[in-house]
Amino acid sequence: MSDEPIILIRDLHKSYGATPVLRGCSLSVRRGEVVVVCGPSGSGKSTLIKCINGLERYQSGSIRLEGIEVGAKGTNLPKLRARVGMVFQHFELYPHMSVTDNIALAQVHVLKRTRVAAQERAHELLARVGLEDKADAMPADLSGGQQQRVAIARALALDPQAILFDEPTSALDPEMIHEVLQVMTELATDGMTMVVVTHEMGFARRVADRIVFMDTGEIVEDAPSEEFFSAPKTKRAADFLSKILEH
Amino acid sequence: MPDVIVKNLPFLLHGLTLTLDLSVWSIMLGTLLGLVVGTVRFVRLPLLNTLALVYVEFIRGTPLLVVLFITYFALPALLGYRTTGYRAAIFGFVLFIGAYLAEDFRSGLRAVRPTLIQAGLATGLTRWQVLRLIILPQAIRRVLPSLFNQYVRLIKFTSVASVIGVTELTGAGLLVNAREFHPVTILAAIAIVYLVVCSALSLAGRALYAHFAVRT
Amino acid sequence: MNYHFDWTPIWAARGLIVEGLLMTIAVSAVSLAFSTVIGLVVGGAATAGSRAVRGLALLFTEMMRNIPLLIHMYIWYMALAFLRLPAFSCAVLGLSLYSGAYVAEVVRAGIGAVGRGQMQSALATGLTRFQAMRYIVYPQALRMIAPSLASLFSQLIKDSSLASVIAVGELTYQAGAIDGQTFRTFEVYITISLIYLVLVTAASQLVLLIPGSRSDLAAGRFADA
Q1: Between chain A's N and C termini, which has fewer beta carbons within 10 Å?
Q2: Which residues are registered as beta bridge partners of C31?
Q3: What does the alpha-carbon distance between residue A179 and residue A154 come to, in Å, rounded to a whole number?
């Protein structure tokens, strides 16, 4: 693990119109770390990670991704985004393309790989997530869990430095959550830097290095995984944990 | 087949081919225009968007016949050029259908989920790449039924070209009638031809849509 | 461009323009009334129990829609000339049958959208089919087609321009007459275009008069008949 944080967020403020959504958030993620972001709905978790790759703009504060300021005027966002993958709650596979083409698209158009090379890599990644037999299927033919695994393969296709996960299992039927979490666990074991917004506390406990707890736009607690689960420092975090672990 | 039709069959058939000719050209050029204008409206390019808006709103609020009178009478008078009925008809039809298709394309583009667009952006594609590779293919599939509706509508509308002297099917039929005085037979025949052509195209459109529909 | 603009003859001919405008509104309004009735009847028939009735309704709709409006008008004016109908009536008949078929489609879809469950629960309380249609299904279907009526009216206003071809003195006809008198071709056609634009916009806003309809539907266009 290098010492320079790959993601460095400092005092981030964001509002939708007059409504503040992020109030002075600061977070740093080192290479190889797995950070889980949790908290009640509306706490700003998804907004926070969408700010990291510039999908959401922020009003003040700083986000440095591999040393580059995300919100700066001259920043080449597409180039930056190719370095960081993202997995969405609703999978968001391109419905008009096959699974292989979904994974190959950005490789061809962003990394300028040849179609053949891109497709080969796509097959490799599909094998890695356990879906090599679905190479020619269309997204609509796949179950939710399968679609999300393809989405993870798609994120991996650009050999990213980190992957952001926005509630990756929240839209899945219970029996499919496991297969996706398993892929994510393997990624973590292989050393991928990950920021995961999720409610899956079991996963967080087993896999995360750090837990970040957010509430109403603020980062309330940011602690190593073991510490957070055994002895949360703030009352809000403790309340949240008790509610969610009961479930 | 009734005598009056048989006697004038070549002339009427020529009218039919002219109808199809007008339709095909207007559909092709109109679709291109509609796609460009619709995309301009969707992306909201600064000056072009306003021009596109004015164009679309003006045409959509104007009857086709008036549009044809403008392309056949008013514009040539204004700009001092001469034109034939055929050229004015194509020009008018392209402008007309282009505006309606532009709106169809625009709503198809807007119907693409923002999170899908974000997914494309998240992989490092530029906005234009996302538009070209992800948004447009989906939007086009989604608007296919509306497009076909407009195409069938256009074929019916080619009959209006007869008013500016184009001898497509309706125009040809009217000329034959002027000579032979058999309005019932002639109009019935023309009506049947339009019926068959339009129904066939509608069916084709439905089949095409079923094949290409994007299951999301 | 050597064209000399001169709008004064247009202003001088405003009497004719007003005549044309009133005739356009007359043709459109009467056709609107007839189209709605035809549409309600045929649309209702299209969801009837009997396959024969449904088939007839479908046949009617397909035929009326796929024959160009101009041909409709010519048929009444020329083919059925023995009826000696005045041009106004020919125009209205043509427009009403053509547009009525489109309204029928909307009504059919609206009734379908109301859902069989509604009809079934109505029947279960002892209402006859007719009563169920009248008190339960139709009112709901009407609420759905109400926004379409405004855009139907706009569409009729535009389509009424074809009546000029069978010598009905509406707006487009008068424009031709004014052009013939004044030779101000560009000015006269741009003027009536703008008048149509205003008429059409006003007509589509009329939906706001219907209580309970949403203003965002005013922007919707009717099947673009």
Answers
A1: C
A2: none
A3: 16
- Count of alpha carbons within 13 angstroms of residue C72, beta-carbon side: 27
What is the C-alpha separation between C116 and C128, in angstroms, rounded? 15
Which residues of chain B are within 8 Å of residue C185 when distances are taken between CB atoms?
73-74, 77-78
Task: Say how far apart CA C102 and CA C35 lie, in whole Å.
Answer: 9
Residue of B nearest to A154 (CA): B123
| Interface mutation target, options B195, B197, B199, chain C, most CBs of C under 10 Å | B195
Domain with C81 in it: what CATH number? 1.10.3720.10
HSE-up of residue C179 (Cα within 13 Å, Cβ side) = 20
- Hey, where are the domains in chain B? 3-212
DSSP code at position C222: P
- Determine the distance in angstroms separating the CA of B118 from the nearest CA of chain A, rounded to an integer: 7
C88-106 pLDDT, tens per residue?
Answer: 999 999 999 999 999 898 8
Range B3-212: architecture per CATH: Orthogonal Bundle (1.10)
- Does chain C reach chain B with at least 3 CB pairs under 8 Å? yes
Residue numbers of the domain that contains C198 = 8-219
Note whether residue C2 is domain-resident.
no
Residue of B nearest to A164 (CA): B122
Instruction: Quick: pLDDT tens for A157-215.
Output: 999 999 999 999 999 999 999 999 999 999 999 999 999 999 898 999 999 999 999 99
